[in-house]
Each structure stands twice: as structure tokens, then as C-alpha cells.
């Protein structure tokens, strides 16, 4: 089941067998302590909103991080795995892909408006088999409208498939403070620099330097959402100074890390 298994009175029902456009529920956990869901699929699409804490989700072809007041949309049938650490509060909505052609066809992180958040909160309190043709049906219709127009956020890290590149990616994720040169990383994978550049561009659509920067953005958002200080994140990512880290973050997300997180706790 999804992340919401800490509710003592929560009885899991497979959302794929519930004949309703949306099946939604929510939960609050004080500490999930390294919770992890192995790769799995749902026939229905899944929107996972994080209200407090942070998640990382690996979906076919990429890694997403979901900070507070954001959500991830996972299309039906997509293989995905979920990880979380620390306290976590969130909502889940499983959506029948047949009910709205406007829903995203690919996985994406989306910004959550106050209206979308309130609609999802209301939907989470509906019975699984809520009465159709009533006010509940209209609530679900508006929720679908809001989800279809939600703004996509740049919290995605494309993950390479080539095992040589994946060994580099896994090593960088494990030791993000390692600021090794292109030459060092190419040697790590048994590649020439030229081959490494060609493969990373082909598989991720990014240059080597751009991919490494995006890795830093994704990890920074995850750590900041978990309560780490800007100074700690700067050190853990291997930046020489806080200003250099803040400049990178601002270029990627359009605002400073402090303001980015403050906005997510003030809405």
C-alpha cells in the first residue's frame, strides 16, 4: 500500500477495484524512519501530495523529489518506487485515466494551489463508494479540473539506463559532495570523456554539467524539506560557500532556497 499505512484504523482497499473516478485518502505519521515502497504499478493514475516532509520517487526513466505543498503525478501503469524519511503528512488520489483526457501522460511534479489542496482534503474524507450524481461528483469534477491545469515544477532528474552511466549516477547520489572532474567520472565508468558526454546527452537530454547541477537541486530540495540548514546542504553538496550554492539554486528554481522553503510553509 502507499505511504499511508501508519493509520491504526486504516483499512487498505485496492483503488483499482473501486468503480469511482477518484479514490482518495490521507494520513499523518510522526516518523516514517526510512520508509520505502518497492517498485510497483497501479492501473489508475496516482497523485501524491506532500503536506509536510518530503518524498523521493523513482519512476521509469527518472527521479523526482516532492517537497511540502507539491505533488507528484504518476500515470497509470508506470512502474514506481517511493522513499520517505522523517515526519510525513500527505494525501493520495488514484484517478481513473478514462475520466479525463487532459491528465498528464508522463510523470511530473506539480505545484499545489490552495484550492487543489482543499479539494483533495475533502475528497479524502469521502467514502470509497461515494454516491454518484451528487455534490460529491461535482467535487471530484472540480478536483480533476485543478489537477489538469496544475503547474509543472522542475524537480525531475532524468536517470540513465546504460549501466556504465547508472554506476556514475548511483555514485554521485551516494556521495554528492564528490566534485570529481569529467575525466575522473569517465575513468570510473571505463569510458572516454567524449563517449561519456555523448551517452549522457543521449539518455538524459542534458549535458554532464547540467545533469550534475540538477542532481544538486533535487537533493537540496529534499534535504531542506527534511529540516537541514542551508549551511549543511551547502557542505553536503560539496560547494565551497553558501553564496555559490544559493546562486545555483536561484538559477534553477527562480528563487533562493530560504524563500523557496518559506513559501511552502506559509500557504
TrEMBL record:
- Keywords noted in UniProt: DNA-binding, Repressor, Transcription, Transcription regulation
Query: One matching Pfam family, short form?
Result: HTH_18
The species this protein belongs to is: Sphingomonas faeni
Tell me which residues make up the HTH araC/xylS-type domain.
163-263
Q: Which GO terms describe its molecular function?
A: DNA-binding transcription factor activity; sequence-specific DNA binding
Transmembrane intervals:
none
Specify the protein name. Answer: AraC family transcriptional regulator
The organism's superkingdom is given as Bacteria
Q: Which CDD domains match?
A: cupin_NimR-like_N
Q: Tell me the InterPro entries matching this sequence.
A: Homeodomain-like_sf (IPR009057), HTH_AraC (IPR018060), RmlC-like_jellyroll (IPR014710), RmlC_Cupin_sf (IPR011051)
Does Cell membrane count among this protein's keywords?
A: no
Q: Is Hydrolase one of the keywords UniProt gives this record?
A: no
Amino acid at each position: 500500500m502507499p505511504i499511508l499505512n501508519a493509520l491504526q484504523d486504516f483499512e487498505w482497499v485496492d483503488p483499482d477495484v473501486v468503480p469511482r473516478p477518484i479514490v482518495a485518502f490521507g494520513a499523518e505519521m510522526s516518523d516514517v524512519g526510512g520508509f520505502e515502497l518497492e517498485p510497483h504499478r497501479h492501473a489508475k493514475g496516482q497523485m501524491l501530495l506532500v503536506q509536510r516532509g518530503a518524498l523521493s520517487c523513482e519512476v521509469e526513466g527518472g527521479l523526482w523529489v516532492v517537497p511540502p505543498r507539491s505533488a507528484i503525478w504518476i500515470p497509470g501503469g508506470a512502474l514506481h518506487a517511493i522513499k520517505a524519511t522523517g515526519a510525513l503528512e500527505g494525501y493520495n488520489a488514484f484517478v481513473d485515466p478514462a475520466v479525463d483526457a487532459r491528465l498528464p501522460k508522463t510523470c511530473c511534479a506539480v505545484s499545489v494551489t490552495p484550492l487543489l489542496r482543499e479539494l483533495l482534503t475533502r475528497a479524502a474524507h469521502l467514502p470509497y463508494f461515494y454516491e454518484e450524481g451528487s455534490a460529491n461528483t461535482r467535487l471530484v469534477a472540480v478536483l480533476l479540473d485543478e489537477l489538469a491545469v496544475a503547474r509543472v515544477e522542475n524537480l525531475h532528474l532524468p536517470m540513465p539506463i546504460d549501466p556504465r552511466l547508472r554506476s556514475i549516477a548511483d555514485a554521485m547520489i551516494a556521495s554528492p559532495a564528490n566534485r570529481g572532474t569529467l575525466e575522473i567520472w569517465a575513468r570510473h565508468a571505463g569510458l572516454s570523456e567524449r563517449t561519456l558526454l555523448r551517452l549522457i546527452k543521449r539518455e538524459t537530454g542534458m549535458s554532464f554539467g547540467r545533469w550534475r547541477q540538477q542532481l544538486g537541486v533535487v537533493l537540496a530540495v529534499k534535504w531542506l524539506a527534511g529540516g537541514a540548514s542551508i549551511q549543511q546542504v551547502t557542505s553536503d553538496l560539496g560547494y565551497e560557500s553558501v553564496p555559490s550554492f544559493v546562486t545555483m539554486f536561484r538559477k534553477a528554481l527562480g528563487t533562493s532556497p530560504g524563500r523557496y522553503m518559506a513559501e511552502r510553509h506559509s500557504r
